Amino acid sequence: MKPVYTEGVHAHRLIKMLELSDICTSCPATINFLGNRYCDELWFNLNRNDYYDFTLICRVCWEFIGLDETNRSRDLRCPCKNFDTSDEVVKLSWLALEKKGYI
Question: In terms of residue numbers, what domain contains 17?
């Protein structure tokens, strides 16, 4: 059975991903942080019927930075695509990492 994608796993992988040059083409839950991959290749997932489902893994990511399903566009899983710039998501990510004690 695949491991569950938890907040702790997300935080650890998010820190590594934030070191990349363009985080909005990346995903902390995918192999090599490639945003065009399914996140459930590595992790146990629920609710995946198609590529655009808001999955358990996506929910961990969104809730980590203080957002939920009501804050997103229907067909966009990545928080970056719901903000004007990736800088906003990067800032929210670093603040959440600090507030939750991961850095």
Answer: 7-99
